[in-house]
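re: ur question from yesterday

yeah so i grabbed the chain u mentioned. its 461 aa long if i counted rite. heres the sequnce exactly as i have it in my notes:
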Amino acid sequence: MEMPVTKSLTNVTANAATNSATNAATHVVTHVVTHVATHTVMDPLTGESPTVQLAGESPRRPSIKLDRSVRGNAASLMVSPAPNFSGSRLITPERPVGQPFQALQYTSERSESVKVALFGLGRWGSHWLRKFADHPQAELVAVVDPCVDRLELAQQGLTDRAIATYTDWRKALEIPGLAAVAIITPASTHYEMIQTALQHNLHVLAEKPLTLETAKAIELCQLADQQQRQLVIDHTYLFNAAVQRGRCLVQQGQLGQLRYGYASRTHLGPVRHDVDALWDLAIHDIAIFNHWLNDVPVRVQAQGHQWLHLEPWETLKQSDLSHPSSPGLADLVWIKLTYASGFEAIVQLCWANPDKQRRLSLVGSEGSLVFDELAAFPLTLWQGQLCRQAGQFVPQNQQQQVIELEPIEPLQAVCDHFLSCVRHNQPSEISSGWLGAELVTILAALSQSLQAGGVPIAISH
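ran it thru and got these C-alpha cells back, copy pasting raw so excuse formatting
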C-alpha cells in the first residue's frame, strides 16, 4: 500500500575555496533552493523505485531564525584565518541564482533508461552495484575495479545480464551510448576520474568527499557547468528520512531558540591509511547540521589525538599520502562549528572506540531533537523548559515524542535522484557538486586548525 509523504527540504549548496600558502585564488558560490519532495514509500527489500516529483519554488532570504517558513538564498563566503595563521578567501563567480528549479518527474517505467558504468566495487561500491543493476531507469553496462576477483564476483551475481568488466577505468569511458558514471572509489582518485568523465560529456555521481582539495573541487564544479553535465555527490544522510523530517521540525520552530548542538560518531575500525578520522567521519555530521540549520559555519576549530598512526609523515609510503592533515593520522578528533547566529556544535569523531555511536542533537529553549541512527526509533523530540519558581529553576512540560518516519531507503533515494538529474539534465537540489565543494572547504579549514593545534579558522560572510 502506497503512503504518500510530503517533506519540505531546503538545501544550502555552496562553492568554497581555501587559498594555499602560495595564495592561489579559487571561487565559490552558495546556492540555496527551496523545494518540496513528494514520494511514495519504497520497499527496501525489492528495491522498487517510487514515483517522485520535485516541485521548485522561489528561494527566499537566508535565515536560521525559526519561523514557519523555510528561508534561503544565494550567499558568498569569505574564508579568513584567525590572527597569525594563513587562511583563504572565497570569491563568488558569476552563476545564475534565484531561479526556481523546474519540476522533476519520473516513474518506474523502463523507458529512457540511463546507461551507467560503476567505478569501484569496494564495500560501498558493492551496494551501488545492486542499486544500478536493479533500477528500472538504469542500464548498468560496465563495472570497473583494479581487483580481478571483485570483477569476477560481480559477474557471478549478475549472470542474467551482459555487463562489461574493466581493470582500466579509462576504457569504460569509450563505451558507445554511455551517459553516466558512478565513481565509488577513494577520494584521492576522484579528481582525475571525474575530470576525465566530464570531459567525455558524461554525468557523474561521486562518493564523498568530492575531492581532498578545495581548489580541485571548485574546478570540477566549474567544468560540470561548462559541459552542462550533472555532478551529484553521494551525501547519503541528506536523503535519510530522519534527517529530512528533522530539518522540518527545526524550521517549524519546535525547539524554540536554538542554543547549541552536539554529535558523536565513533566505532572500532575500519581504520583508514589515506585520511584521518576528520576526513573520514566529519562530513556526515557537518552536512546534517548545515541542512537542519539552513546555514554554514562562520568559524571552525579542531583538535585531535593519535595512537595508531605515530610515524612521521616522512616515513610513511608516498602512496598512502593523499591529504596530510596532521604530523600523523589523527585517530580522535574533536571539532567545533560556529554559525553566524552564535549557535555552536561540538562533534566527537573516533575510529578507535568500541562504543559505537551515531548520535546528533540540536538543543533549543523549548526542547531537544535527537537523531540516533542506532536506536529503534531514530528521531526523538524531547520537550521541556526550565521555569523560575521561588528563586529556583524547575523543569516543566517535559515529554518525549517519537517521530514517525516513512521506511525510505536513503541509498535508493540517492540512486533515484541521480538518475532523475541525468534524464532531465537538471542540477541536484539536494546534493550537488557545489554543496560537495562547500563541505570540502569546511573540512580543509578544520584540517588547518588541526595542523595548528586547534587555532580557530574564520569563515565570514
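noticed a couple things. The first helix runs from residue 123 to 134. also Confidence is low (pLDDT under 50) at residues 1-110, 312-326.
anyway ttyl
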